[in-house]
Design brief:
With 245 residues, the chain is α/β, with parallel strands linked by helices. It has a single domain, classed as Alpha-Beta Barrel (TIM Barrel), CATH 3.20.20.370. It has 8 helices and 8 strands; from the N terminus they run αβαββαβαβαβαββαα. Helix 3 links the parallel strand 3 and strand 4.
């Protein structure tokens, strides 16, 4: 692609990146394992990572799934329940920018059977911070219910589309029954993070193998936005831990 390449990862580079994880002995956890570690309920390996994929493009099944299977890795794929099997619709016509197709229900069942976790990316890939709380709740709750009906398993994990969320969206995620929600806040998750506002590290088309390793292994001071959200949600997290020691 000529534009928006930061949103994508070349499948050959992805293959090498997963090979590096394997060669260096990193442990790939699913989100439930990682959450248990962050809560102190199980030890977290010193080198551990969770792999997440937004939107649920159908080329995940073609390119990423075989690589993950070869290394015995798992991942979480966030699906947009209202657009399964369709081409993405959240931007206008742009020269040189195709509209990838999303996985359909059968493909989601296939990757789930192969050991992947399917999470929610709302019903319509909504900017949650731009809509009212009632609409936020519909987007996150209805997506979870629809995906559970398709997959026959609980859907416990959410990703905020565009990284767009606010305090009301965090409350909606909790009310809808999610145990985690990932953001576009940049950083490694820590026990001090609220599980419904987890940061991540983005890997994009331009990241070489060295760039991938740098993002993976080096600790960086948190960005101001991440620090601000941690401070904002700290009282809520403390109350929850007091209620469920």
């Amino acid at each position: 692609m000529r534009t928006h390449r930061a949103n994508y990862c070349d499948h050959r580079r992805f293959d090498r990146q997963m090979g590096l994880l394997h060669a260096l002995g990193w442990t790939v956890l699913d989100l439930d394992q990682a959450l248990a570690g962050l809560r102190g309920e199980r030890p977290l390996p010193a080198r551990s990572v969770v792999l997440t994929f937004d939107d649920g493009y159908d080329n995940f099944a073609d390119f990423a799934l075989p690589v993950l299977a070869r290394h015995g890795f798992t991942a979480t794929v966030y699906a947009i329940s209202g657009w399964l099997g369709q081409r993405i619709q959240w931007y206008g016509d742009e020269p040189g920018r195709p509209r990838p197709r999303l996985m359909d229900a059968a493909q989601l069942r296939e990757i789930q059977a192969a050991g992947m976790t399917v999470g929610s990316h709302t019903v319509t890939h909504a900017h949650l911070a731009a809509i009212d709380p009632a609409a936020q709740l519909r987007e996150v709750r209805d997506s979870r219910l629809a995906l559970e009906d398709l997959l026959g398993k609980p859907v416990r994990h959410l990703c905020y589309p565009f990284g767009s969320f606010n305090l009301e969206a965090v409350h909606a995620a909790g009310a809808a029954g999610y145990v985690s929600a990932t953001t576009c806040l940049r950083g490694a998750a820590t026990p001090g993070d609220h599980p419904l506002a987890l940061p991540r590290k983005a890997i994009s088309f331009g990241d070489s193998l060295w760039g991938f390793a740098w993002k993976l292994g080096f600790k960086h001071a948190p960005k101001p936005e991440l620090t601000a959200w941690r401070q904002r949600l700290a009282p809520t997290l403390a109350r929850q831990r007091d209620a469920h020691p």
